[in-house]
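If your schedule permits, I should be very grateful for your opinion on a structural question. I would ask you to consider whether the tokens describe a fold that such a sequence might reasonably adopt. Thank you for your consideration; the sequence and its tokens are set out here.
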Amino acid sequence: MVSNLISNTMIVKPNRENFIKDNFFEFSFKDEKPDFEKFKTLNSTELHYLADIYNWDDGVEILFWIINSDKCDKGTALMIFWRAVPDYYLEKDENELQFYEKENYQLLKEIIASFKSNKFKKSKIKYNPNSDFEVNTDQALKWDIPKEMIQPTRGFKPVYLGTALNVLKKQYRRSKNRKHRK
């Protein structure tokens, strides 16, 4: 049973979660720059993890790295697209945006163009746009995006093993504390 679980999911191991957090999470708060050479060591599932935990206050440079990587899965690209809150950007003309918003707008446009050109070949990671954004299909189609970008992707939901273990530890401690109070 455990071997089926492992073979049917995509796992990010705790040491890789830590590597990603140490190098690509909230780096701007530490006055650091991300290292592209380290970034290139990430696999498809790790790119998804990075996109999932990413703090947009760090800017969009790493998000561009992700969507331009040949390891980027459709599910990951869609998650970035929908978490960017596309209605804010795509219902405006680029000239109406503040200078700091234009990078997000360009990121969205690049993701759309990539889907139109079928750039994202892999679709192994499960992602449902409605999990992050209430998708209004008619509104979304006005943005001239492919219908594929509105629909959930097939595949497996990645497992972040370190995160899952931390949740289990907290639950265990809570249950242990409850038993002591009784």
